[in-house]
Amino acid sequence: TVNNFQSTIFQGTGFVLANAGQQSTKGIEFDSTFTPIDPLTLTFAGVIQDPNYDSFTAAPGPNGTTVDLSGTKPAGINEVALTFSATYTHDFGNGVSGFLRGNYQYEDEVQIVDNIAGLTRDTKLVNGSFGFRFDNGVSLRVWGNNLFNHETYTSAFPGVVQAGTVNAYPNQPRTYGAALRYNF
User: Fold this and answer.
1) What 3-state class would DSSP assign to 55?
2) CA 29/CA 78 separation, integer angstroms
3) Neighbour-count burial for 80-90, b at 16+ CB within 10 Å, e otherwise
4) Which of the listed ranges 14-18, 41-45, 109-113 does the model predict with the highest average pLDDT?
5) Nearest to residue 166, comparing CAs of 178, 157, 175?
């Protein structure tokens, strides 16, 4: 429980600092690692919570208005956030080792900001990589993020000096890359 929680919300022409009487969250957080066989490592982590504005009677609303958010869920705080990964390593011999890794990140749908009703985001990202490490200090990694090109917004705010408009930032699209390193 946080008493006198202060919320900063961008209203298009500047930030508004508002005092929420009380915000509380109850939940559980966990992080686990499992190695069923020596070269395979599995991870599972997450947060399951119930965030709530216990009292927020003069919250900044759309177009400079104030609203009562008491009893509602704060924007940007997911009730469920989970991540899974699997990493397989292999020693090829002659000073060469390699790995194959995949991970999935999930966050349930949540309102992006308190002062723009109906604008939500969720996260469903699949990432993968593989690489090789050599005894001479050279390593190569090839990776891909957001492999299924899941589209969502990461943040949003009312348009500057244009009542009724909304600006939002999209998440990273599908990206690929490679990294060549030398450790000495």
Assistant:
1) strand
2) 13
3) ebbbebebeee
4) 41-45
5) 157
143 vs 81: CA distance, rounded Å: 23
CB 88 within 8 A of CB 38: no
Residues 138-162: pLDDT tens digits? 999 999 999 999 999 998 888 777 7
What's the DSSP call for residue 14? S
DSSP class of residue 38?
A: T
Distance CA 174, CA 176 (A): 7
**Amino acid residing at 34:** F
Which residues are bridge partners to 31 per DSSP? 45
| pTM, to two decimals | 0.85
DSSP structure string for 108-167: EEEES-TTSTT-EEEEEEEEEEEEEEETTSEEEEEEEESTT----EEEEEEPTT-TT-EE
